[in-house]
Design a protein that fits this description.
- The complex is a heterodimer of chains A (about 280) and B (about 475).
- Chain A is α/β, with parallel strands linked by helices.
- Helix content of chain A is about 30%, strand content about 30%.
- Chain A is built from 9 helices and 17 strands.
- In chain A, the strands form 4 sheets. In chain A, strands 12-11-10-9-13-14-17 form a 7-stranded mixed β-sheet, sandwiched between helices. Chain A has a 5-stranded antiparallel β-sheet with strand order 5-6-2-1-7.
- In chain A, helix 5 runs parallel beside helix 6.
- Chain A is globular, with a radius of gyration of 19 Å.
- Chain B has about 475 residues and is α/β, with parallel strands linked by helices.
- Chain B has 17 helices and 16 strands.
- Chain B has a 5-stranded parallel β-sheet. In chain B, strands 6-14-7-8-9 form a 5-stranded parallel β-sheet.
- The longest helix of chain B has 24 residues.
- The chains are: A alpha/beta (about 280), B alpha/beta (about 475).
- At the A-B interface, helix 1, strand 8, strand 15, helix 8 and helix 9 of A face strand 5 and helix 12 of B.
Amino acid sequence: MVTIIRKKVLNASVTLLEVEAPRIAKKAEPGQFIILRVDEQGERIPLTIADFDRERGTVTIIFQKVGLTTQLLGDLEEGDSIRDFVGPLGLPTELPEGARRVCVVGGGVGCAIAYPQAKGLHAKGLAVDVIAGFRSKDIVILEEEFKAVCDNLYITTDDGSYAEKGFVTDKLKSLIDAGNSYDAVIAIGPIPMMKFVCKTTEPYGIKTIVSLNPIMIDGTGMCGGCRVSVGGKMKFACVDGPDFDGHQVDFDELMSRNAVYRGEEAQQKQRHACRMEQLGKTLIH
Amino acid sequence: MANMSLTKVPVPEQDPQVRNHNFEEVCLGYTAEQAMEEAGRCLHCKNQPCVGGCPVNIHIPEFIAKVAEGDFKAAYEIISDTNALPSVSGRVCPQESQCEARCVRGIKGEPVAIGRLERFVADWYRENVNEMPRRPESNGVKVAVVGSGPASLTCASDLARAGYQVSIFEAFHTAGGVLVYGIPEFRLPKAIVQNEVDKLTAMGVELETDIVVGKTYTIDEMFADGYQAVFVGSGAGLPMFMGIEGETLAGVYSANEYLTRINLMKAYREEYDTPIKKIRRAAIVGGGNVAMDAARCAKRMGAEHVYVVYRRSEEEMPARREEIHHAKEEGIEFLFLNNPVKILGDDQGRVRAMECVRMELGEPDDSGRRRPIEVKGSEFELEVDAVIMSLGTSPNPLIRSTTPGLEANRKGCLVADEERLATTREGVYAGGDAVTGAATVILAMGAGKKAAAAMDQYLQEKRGK
């Protein structure tokens, strides 16, 4: 059981929670994640550690309300507790040896995961550029936070409603073509975005690290639910990753594996809506 | 005069065509009358061969004598003197190859139903007395136990009785290991496992869940925090896959994943959030008890056809006869002498079929079993929408890779000496599947017991110095 000590609504669908978890805060490194379970009937879901404070003994998670569990999590307030909170899991991000300049690319809520990466690398003294892409202005998050931990921050919106219009891949390509030489690119976001970032960097031979987000259950390597194909070999993302060499990942396979429970998930959400409606009615009468 | 019937008193079971639609226990257990009648079959042999067959050395004839008298409380006390988990072992032990295999009555006719009697006594006690054990006087010495499966629970229980201050560290949110995530409710109700865990905490054992040793907390940190000895009972939870084409298709599961979703996460119950895919036709690959559990779960989850695909013949199957028999009664279809070659997907990356090849048995191999050989050109497609791989498991590398000085063998099993279960690191003991690779619940319990005794001796010697 962990207690929520801070809640911040970042935009209409993205929420930040800071929880008291001293054991995890003491060990966490950028790239690692936690598994949580909201309550006794809950499912286990993985979320990347978005920030940690070893002195305060806290861990921060940022998540998008996309289904039942993240909805329930988003409904919690400061002082409430989360039933189970396990970590830090997975391996910390590893950069190519001698890397001095990196570009961190975040897409949407993936920026929440890109943030600790940029922060960690910046603290180590590397030159860090950040490209943060969003669909539109209303969902831009962490702008101030990013500014504090990188040399150059480039924000893009698909519809041009804020900062530069276009996709992160457009920006990345133009930066590389303009002569910015990166020792590595770290891409974190929706699977199609990571896939296209990898396609963008491949011709330039820039090492590209992606943080994969397959379905997980235990997160400790005992079930293989999170297995992915990397360089033609089967890997368990929870123990061998979640970071992998993006040029080796089979993204199409990952996409189809992640879609397996879509029908069940929609039903789940429906059930939650019914439950909420029921609750609303009882409260009114 | 003993009851000289050549057969065991039969035990009532749920009807196969009813039980294959629910998760309630298959075996309903003896009534008091049935238990007393069966207890009457024990001859109370002087040399007690049955006790030698029990890895935790239960005083079998003594407890059976009490059952025959109808003094079930006394019978329970005799069992629990050496066995920390009687309601578990009475249900899941392969008695046919242990205590009952050595029963004199088994020479002519069926052996005494020791397992059923043990289970009856434990159930009777839980339902009628359920007194929580008292907290033994503490000797103030802290010891740590990694994992909370059968080896760890047994070890923790024995150490707590000896007065140690025991902390169990469990990675999952619920204690019990394979007893909660692996073995299904219809063979071992989870409320029973919880009751056994409650007895431990009543004895003062502290249970910390959600701690992944090697990640959240390391063995070195345990020693730094004042733990004087550590028992590693982390099991063998790493699933194996075949390495054939199509294993990453959507609809292919390890038995661990499938069973964890159902048993631990309770995906079979509407009010729990973990989803599970509706399967129409399932292929279970493998022939062990885990394969039987996965097959019977798939049937209960509504699959129309459940095939067990096994490369050898029925004779070589490692699963218990009783489980194979139960599975057959429930309508599970067995495809013996068949081996998967590849898994075929549709245009969306989902399983549509499994290609198999027929096998025939050749000469015996190293394991003494006849080696299966492919029949060339016999490939065929089995139409399925899910494949559950149940090929066995090996120990998770997490603990050995984060504990300096802890050696493992080629198969990833921790090296521990057979007598004392001491690892290559001073003060660290290990037992159960973490040492042997996937084996049985009762062997893990036996190892936990042995380790507890060795740890006690080690700690006493250390204090004496």
